[in-house]
Amino acid sequence: MSYSQSQSGAYALILGEHKGIRRLPIIIGGFEAQAIAVELEKMKPTRPLTHDLFKNFAEHYNIFIKEVIIDKFMEGVFFAKLICMQGDEENEIDARTSDAVALAIRFRCPIYTYENIMSEAGIVMEEKAEELMDEEEEQHTGEPDADEYGSNTMDDLNEKLKHAIDNEEYEKASRIRDEINKRSKN
Asked: What is the pLDDT of residues 85-98, one digit of tens each?
């Protein structure tokens, strides 16, 4: 996931093809990006986010998401379905793609799409382009964080991390967590 250069306040969610070189870029809003990032980063907010509440509710009634299918691409917009199981009964539920991905991560289920969607909207990422993106990401996440939190003690960092999570400042919490992880490796 990265900040979208083309749309202000939006993020690009890049889904990769399993054992392939194509990527499916999906533009999502800031709140949706936050919901995905919170789960990917294994952060535990003090109150459940909407997707966490949905998961808790579904599990309480023995409903599980088996898979997510990105099944349509029309006028630049992706559409998705949740394939849900309750006992032996399978049901499909329409969902925004960003919500479907946030739930797929929480339910640890696969995300699929069709070849025609990958052909139309997918992009092939050259190895050089991927390496360049990885280098830029390392520079972005490495140097500024060290300057921002470099003078803090581990106790200070842990306190700041708790405060950021309590105040639902997940991007800040992610930067603090990265600094803690960096120091733990040393």
From this structure: 999 999 999 999 99
